[in-house]
Amino acid sequence: DVSQYHLNKAITAYLDTQPATGSTIIISGFPENLDQALNFAENAGEPSVFLSFEGDEEEFFASANAEAKKANLSEAIVARRVQRFKDETKPVVEHYKKFSKVKSIKDRGEFAGVLDMLKAVL
Fold first, then answer.
1. Which residue, of 2, 6, 50, 109, is most buried by count of CB atoms within 10 Å of its CB?
2. For residue 86, is pLDDT > 80?
3. Does the pTM of the predicted model rise above 0.85?
4. Whole-angstrom Cα distance, residue 47 to residue 120?
5. Would you state the torsion angle of the CA atoms of residues 20, 24, 26, 27, taken in this order, to the nearest 10 degrees?
6. Is 109 exposed, middle or buried (0-12, 13-18, 19+ CB in 10 A)?
7. pLDDT tens digits for 50-70?
8. d(CA 32, CA 88)
9. Closest to 15 in 3D by CA, of 24, 6, 2
C-alpha cells in the first residue's frame, strides 16, 4: 500500500532526527487492519500506546445515519463502514490489548471532555 509506505518512511525519518524521549506522534484512523499494524511495527516500530475511541453503538448509528442523511448518503453505507470496523479494525484493537497497549477513551460528549480524557492517557 503506497500510503502506508510513505507513512512508514515519514515516521522513521522523524524518529531518526528527533529525541526518543518525549516524542509523541498520533496517527488518526491508522491502522485500519491487522496487516497494516504488523507492517508498521516491522518497518517503523511498535507503538507504545494504541488509542481506542469508544462509544455506545446505538448512539453512533443514530448520529452517523443523521450525518449520512445530511450528506445524501444511504444508511447502507453507514452499515458497511461499521461492519468493516468490526471485521478489520476491531482485530487490531484486540491484538494490542494482548500487550496491554490499548487505552480506551469514551468519545461521546463535549470535545473538551474527550480532549481531557486523551491528555490523561498520554
1. 50
2. yes
3. no
4. 18
5. -10
6. exposed
7. 888 887 888 888 888 888 889
8. 7
9. 24
Residue spans of beta strands (DSSP E) within 18-122: 50-54, 102-106
Instruction: Encode burial over 32-53: b for 16+ CB neighbours within 10 A, e otherwise.
Output: ebbebbebbeeebeebeebbbe
Residue 50, C-alpha cell as written in the block: 494504541
b/e per residue, 79-94, with b = 16+ CB within 10 A? eeeeeeeeeebeebbe
Per-position DSSP letters for 21-39, written without gaps between them: TT-----TT---SHHHHHH
- Preceding omega of 19 cis (within 30 degrees of 0): no
Distance CA 103, CA 94 (A): 12
